[in-house]
TrEMBL record:
Residues 1-31 form the signal peptide. It comes from Roseateles aquae. This is Alpha/beta fold hydrolase. PANTHER family: HYDROLASE, PUTATIVE (AFU_ORTHOLOGUE AFUA_2G14860)-RELATED (PTHR43798:SF33), MONOACYLGLYCEROL LIPASE (PTHR43798). Keywords: Hydrolase, Signal. InterPro entries: AB_hydrolase_1 (IPR000073), AB_hydrolase_fold (IPR029058), AB_hydrolase_sf (IPR050266), TPR-like_helical_dom_sf (IPR011990).
Length: 422
């Protein structure tokens, strides 16, 4: 289990080094830095928020680690994103939890910290090692709040089951040794982790949201492996579990590095920062696509209602169409596409209303003018169509459009003039 490495390193730190890490972390923050002790039902949790930008990135440290786990990473991201680091109950300066630890209780604490910091969803969650299990549980319970997920050499609930197939005796010996060396403050967490590993699944298994995701895996080779996980067979298992986990997401990255050990955020902070940026970019694009789809659905629904109005309610049609277009905030191409579908559905009056909007909203668009001309021609208004086709040709020259495009506009103009002669 990954806690072997995490505990070994954390136990070797002196209190002075932990304090120095905190000072370093605080010193890198932007003007928006907020350090607080958050009250959670009589307990206090240490949290720091900082940074600026569109994305909100929330960090969950590994087993036995506090917020200083991210001290090398946050300076790289603070100029471009809002960040939250905190120490879980019983870690760093945070008070211990009076009840037995659980993923759900840790998630409730995190929700309280987020609310206190005034950080609104959606969140991009970053979890290291055991922290990966915590953000998985949080994301599964609050899928609507999640924009993306980044797993840093994440713990996997099936790891110990897989390692037992390699060397059950050695794994058991390592677990017993770890239990003996674990400080009292971390024994309850270690017992929870061992329970999860023995079960091979998380409690109350839930579907994770299908959001942009990155999984970073250490593939470092150890000349003299100190634990079973670091043997070639153990590392092969580790990589396989991570690969299988990443594959469940439709938009995911699996990044492997042989330059880092378990603490990728310390060994290669720039690599992790880039992964977070990529997930944030994918999440922004996914949000844009989702918003566009919702706007299209809403506009189509409104247009269906407008099309059902009586034929003599033209003024109401125009007013409601204008309102629906303003509310949609859709661009020229989307509105143009909807209008052509309406033309194909024998609804040229409604199509012309949409295309008039495009001409007004995009007065320098030759395509908008040409499209309105086609709708007007279909409505039997060749003189008005002719004016739009002429305008399309004028704009095409200004916009230096392809000659084939200009030829199409000329054909439309000729058709309008022919209709005028009939």
């Amino acid at each position: 289990m990954t806690v072997h490495t995490s505990l070994r390193r954390s136990l070797s730190r002196k209190a002075s080094l932990m304090l120095a890490s905190l000072i370093m972390l605080t010193g890198t923050a932007q003007a928006q830095l907020g350090e607080r002790m958050v009250d959670v039902v009589g307990r206090r949790l240490h949290a720091i928020s900082m940074g600026q930008g569109e994305s909100t990135v929330v960090f969950e440290a590994g087993f036995s680690m506090d917020l200083s786990s991210w001290r090398k990473l946050v300076p790289l991201l603070a100029p471009e994103a809002k960040l939250l680091v905190y120490s879980r109950a019983g870690h760093g300066q945070s008070d211990p939890m009076q009840q037995p630890p659980s993923l759900a209780r840790a998630g409730a604490d995190l929700q309280a910290v987020l609310a206190d910091a005034g950080l609104k969803p959606p969140y991009l969650l970053v979890g290291h090692s055991y922290g990966a299990l915590l953000i998985r549980d949080f994301a599964a319970r609050h899928p609507e709040q999640i924009a993306g997920l980044v797993f840093v050499d994440p713990a996997h609930e099936k790891l110990d089951l897989s390692l037992r197939q390699i060397d059950a005796a050695r794994l058991q010996a390592e677990r017993e040794d770890l239990a003996r060396r674990a400080p009292p403050a971390f024994r309850a967490d270690l017992a929870l982790i061992n329970t999860l590993m023995d079960a091979g699944q998380l409690p109350e298994p839930r579907q994770l949201p299908d959001v942009p995701t990155a999984v970073l895996s250490s593939t470092k080779r150890y000349a003299q492996p100190q634990v079973l996980l670091h043997t070639p067979a153990g590392m092969q298992t580790w990589r396989r579990l991570h690969s299988e986990f990443a594959a469940q997401f439709s938009n995911s990255l699996h990044i492997t590095t042989s330059n880092s050990g378990h603490f990728i955020q310390n060994d290669e902070p720039a690599l992790l920062a880039d992964a977070i940026r990529q997930v944030a970019k994918m999440a922004a694009e996914q949000a844009r696509v989702k918003a566009r789809q919702q706007a299209l659905q809403a506009l189509n629904s409104s247009l269906q209602a407008i099309a059902a109005l009586p034929a003599d309610a033209q003024a109401e049609r125009e007013a409601r169409t204008l309102s629906a277009l303003q509310a949609s905030a859709l661009g020229e191409a989307d509105i143009n596409e909807i209008a052509y579908r309406l033309l194909g559905a024998q609804q040229p009056t409604l199509a012309a209303s949409l295309l008039r909007w495009n001409v007004q909203a995009y007065p320098q668009s030759d395509n908008a003018a040409d499209s309105l001309g086609e709708a007007l021609l279909t409505l039997g208004q060749p003189a008005q169509a002719e004016a739009q086709f002429q305008r399309a040709l004028e704009l095409a020259a200004i916009n230096k459009r392809n000659p084939r495009v200009t030829a199409g506009y000329q054909q439309h103009l000729d058709a309008a003039r022919a209709a005028l002669k009939r």
